[in-house]
Structure formats: C-alpha cells, structure tokens
Amino acid sequence: MTTLAAGPATRRRRASSGFWRFLTYLALVLIMAPAAWMLIGVLARAWSHWQWSVLWTKATPTGGGLRDQILGTLILMFGVLIIAGSIGVFAGIHLAEMARPNKPAGRLSGPLRTASDVLSGFPSIVLGYVGYTALVVGLGWGFSLAAALIILSIMVIPYIAKTTENSLRQVPTGYREGAEALGMSVGYSLRKVVLRSALPGIVTGLLLALAIAAGETAPLIYTAGFSNTLPHSLTHAQFPYLTYVVFSYWNDPSVQKHYLSYDAALILIVIVLLLLVSSRIIVSRTQRHAESARTTRTGKRLWPGRGQAVEPAKDEPLLGITGAPPR
Amino acid sequence: MATVGGVAGSVPATPRAEPVGKPPPWRRFGKFARRNEEVAWRSVAWVAVLLPLAALVFAVSVLAVKAWPAIRVNGWYFLYGRDWTYGNGYGAVVHTDGVAHQMGARFGAWAIIWGTLASSLIAIAIAVPLSIGAAFALTERMPTWISRPLGFTIEILAGIPSVVIGLWGILTFGPWLAHHVYPVIADHMPDVPVLRYFSNPVGTGEGLMSAGIVLALMIVPIIASTTRDLFAQVPPLPKEGASALGMTDWEVANKVTLPWVRSGIVGATVLGLGRALGETIAIAMIGGASLQIPHTIYLPFTTVAATILSQLDGALTDGTGFAVATLAELALVLAVISVGVNLIARQIVKRTGRVGAPVGGA
Questions:
Q1: Contacts B63 to A, Cβ<8 Å
Q2: Adjacent-strand bridge partners of B93
Q3: B338 CB within 8 Å of a chain A CB
Q4: Tens digit of pLDDT for each residue in A67-85?
Q5: Whether residue B358 has pLDDT greater than 70
Q6: Where are the beta strands (DSSP E) in chain B?
Q7: Given pLDDT bands bounded at 50, 70 and 90, which one contains residue B21?
Q8: Which residues of B touch A243 (CB under 8 A)?
Q9: What is the ipTM for the molecules in this complex?
Q10: CB distance A115–B53 less than 8 Å?
C-alpha cells in the first residue's frame, strides 16, 4: 500500500516508527538473552558433573550428596503450605467476603489490608533479623526449623491473602446471589459455591508462594542456621536446606563442594519450574472450562442428606459475567 | 385427563424416609455445624486476618526495642557518617547515655545507604525501558503463539531464586562483564566530572554496576508482566482511531497507549524499586562487600540488606551487644525505606486500577 502523499515528513515518521519498533525487539532480546544464558549456564554447569546419587546420598564434610538438604527444603515448603496456606487463605476470605462495612470488624478491614500490604513490603532480611532477635535468641529456640517456618510463613502470608482475595473477588456476584436465592446459608454457599469457583486462583497463589519459600535464603540463614543432617526436633537444632548450599559452597576450597553448589542450583530451578508450570497449567485449564469445570463437580450432591441432585446450568455465564479474568 | 394417582397401588407413594425419634448424635452435630457454619467461618477468618497485623506490630516493636540504644548513641551521625567500626574489642567498655559499647565504636551508615539507593536506581534505569519495550513487543507486535511462551519465560525469571541468579552473576556474568564490557566503556570515557565515574579501574566484576545489572534482571519480570497486562487492558478503539487518523505505530504507542497506562507503569516501577531495595543474597554475592563508597561504578560496594546479612558474625563478637543493636537500627532504616516505597506504589496503583502481575513478596 504505497501512499498518496509520502512526503519527507511522512517518510521520516515511518522511519522513526521502524526505529522504535526495532528498539522494542531489542529490549525483548536484552531481557531474554541473559535469562536464557543464566538458565542454560547454571544447568550446564551442574549437568557436566551430574550424578543421580546426589539425590539420595547424605552430605559429608567434604562433599557427598544433598539428600538431607533436599528433604529440608521440601519440609520447609510443606510447613509453609500448612501454616501460611491456612492462615493466608482465611485472611483472604475475610478481606473479600466477610468484611461487613456496618460492623466494627468491617471498618477495620481497610487498616488490616494496609497492614498486610506493609508486611509484604518488608524486606525478607529484616524479617529474618526479627526472627533471629525474637525467636532464636529471645525465646531461646536457637537456630531451628520452628523459627524458620514462622518467619517464612510471615513472609508469604500477605502474598497468599492477596491472591486469595483477588480470586474471590473475581467470582461473579450472581453466584452468591443464586446460592442465597436457593436458600443456602452464607457459610454453606461460601464452602460449596464461592470457594470452589475461586479455587484455581487460590491454588495458583499457593504454588507461587511455595516457589518464594523454596528460593528464599537470607531469612533462613538468620533463623534456620545450616546443618548437614536433618534434626529430630523443632527447636535447638540447625536445619539443612538447599539455598544455603548454593550461597556458600561455590567458593569452598573443596571442588566437590563446588559441584554440590551447582547441583543444588539445578535442583532449585527444577523445583521452581515444576511449581510455576503446574500453576500455569491450572490457570489455562480453568480458563478453557471457565464455567463448566466448577459446576459439574458441585452439581453432584448439592444438598447432602436429601438425596436429590441439583444440576446448575452449565457453560452459561450467569448474568453475562464470566469468572475468568482478562489475560 | 390421565389418571393421576387415582388407582390405588399403581403409583406407590414414596414418602421420604423421615428419621424416627432422635437423630443419632453425629447427625445432630451436623445440624449444629450447618447452623453455625457461618459463625465458624467468620471467627476463624477473623483470627487469620488479624495475624498479619500482629506480625507487623511484633516485627516493628522488636526492631524498635532492639535498635533503641543504637539510635540514642549513634544519633543523626548514623544517617550521614561514613565510619563503620566496631571499636576495640580488647579495650575498656565505654558508656554513653547509659549504653555500653566498645571503645572507639562509631557507626555511620551513609556509604551503605548510598549503596542501596545507587544500586536500586541503576536497576530501575536499566529495567524500566527494557520492560516497557519488551511489553510492547509482546502485546502489540507478536502472534500469540510466540508471545505466550516468551511471556511465560519472563514469569519464570521472576521465580528463579535470587541465590541462583547470584551464583550465575558471580561465576559467569560478572567476570564476563569485567573482561569484555567494562573495559570497552571505561577506555572511552573522557575525564570530565560525571563520566569520570565510569572510567578505569573496572575491577573484577564484583561491584556496583554488576549488582545493578543483575538487580535489573530480577525486577524486569515484575515491571514487564505488569506493564504487559496494562497494555492488554487498553481498549482497541482509541488505538484503531489513532491509526485511522494516520498515526504511525510509534505515534499510537506514544500518544495513546502509553498515556493510558502511565501511572500504572509508575506504580509497577516503584514496586520493582521496593524489591530491589530489599534484595539481599544476590548483592551479598556479587556486591563485593566494601563498606566504602566506590571510586568508580564498577568497584565493590554494599547495601543495607547485604550488610545486615554479612555483618552479623562480626557484630556478635561485640560483647556489649551494641553492634547487634546497630544492625537492628540498620534493619529499621531499610524497613522504613522499602515500606514507604511500597505504600507509595500501592497508592499509585490503587488510584489507577489493578496491578496485573502477581507482585508482592519482597
């Protein structure tokens, strides 16, 4: 489509447009290249000396494997899932569903949300220092799993609360109104209708929070300390985890330990990738079946004890509002 | 009319089985639970939502109590001074205002605070243009089958543990920069006031510039994915209208799309800044850990977060506990800076709609 009047001004404008378009591609390359370099570089470093026995061999003072460190990281993730998961999800439920503006508790929800935001802006090392002062020294727990779990949980609770609140807010109001019109109590409709619709978003938030917990180092150095073996008690025993291996073994005199540090980085990347990919799968699956996936499951026995199945409408968005966020 | 229930026995009446007598106890509990379910939800959720507030109050008060002696003794010098010394561990214990500390202890954190601000600003200066450009390329230019995987790669970058990025930075990226990039820049810098800061010596790759670049890599995902989601929310009609008026792609982007989401981008930038200010472990690995303000931009420095991490062992050797209290003061300063930055960001974002990306934990 050549032009009606491509004067010098127009040509200049087109050229500048092309120039800026080139710059945007350049920006993309400048982000992607280091990212790919980093991933491939770390993976290659580990892979060239990789031995599967690292996964099940215990660490020795000069090398060995990473069994207890891997287990330690998994235990930390599991504990955070239990503690921060339950607290964060309930806090999100409160912020999204429960806060009634006419009650004193509801008026507090603004400050409570602010508190959660402020906490999520706290640098992790500062929380680690607090854990060290208050739990490790103050309560006399010593470097321990308990202190680490509490501090890690405090770190990710605001994050989980936020994602829970956001995904609850994306549940269409029509769902709640419909449940109320059917005579469900608030608690019941929350459990059977609202939470079920919001579940994919909540699970995604939990997985990302787990990724944060798995990759955290600084607060753990202050609270968990480090050891080569899994302890038998919650307190008074330093705890092993992977990130410390990456942090400190790379400049150890022993070459064996360098390899361990690369291996630990590889394992961490794999853990995080698994979490991210599964959260991505959850998101894309629920977007594809935005409506049907959740109602068929609820449809089976909506009112237990009476034996009649109520089948909600499938595949039709209520009131023309779809639950899936724009992406 | 058909016979409806007229003939006895043809349609056996099936009355619902009503429980006779008292229902068993578990049923009664079920009924009780159903009636009180809302109360249960409310009370549990209420307790849960109070916990972040409690944790916040707890953290701030622990820091404040711990730091108070240091705040009293260090005074304003802490914010502008440049000496950082624990004093003589074998000398006499000195008391100032009733606070015991080692003789000659003097704590001025300006070089450390300076390092935090400088590295974060370098990171922002690099990350913001790159993120906006990449977000444009992803939303406006590409078919979905390319932009989806690329966008996902950026999100993966957000999830990579910072210690892994630090490992790559110290082993691969920093040395590469120091051998192949910095000398080229440094050798061509004229000896004039500002640019002098970019000239030789270039060091070994552990330092301010390397840390800033790596920090930029860490905050790009936050800014880029938020910006991408913001761009996707700009309605197509104004853009198409502008195109129809004869604007080029660049003019549409500059005059329609960017102004539409400008404050959202500012909010995302400030959130990224918050993350950069609090980043610890990567800086501890590639910052070089020097308590001086570096002479050129390539040389070792330190940040508040990295200092808190690396100085604890040293501080514990101070028998009076004053050095540990000073670390608490440092932590308090960092908390104030990054919480302030975060709150500003959230205000900006709140005023202009939502942040698209999952952004939060520092």
A1: 126, 129-130, 133
A2: B102
A3: yes
A4: 999 999 999 999 999 999 9
A5: no
A6: 84-85, 88-96, 99-103, 106-107
A7: low
A8: 161, 163, 281
A9: 0.82
A10: yes
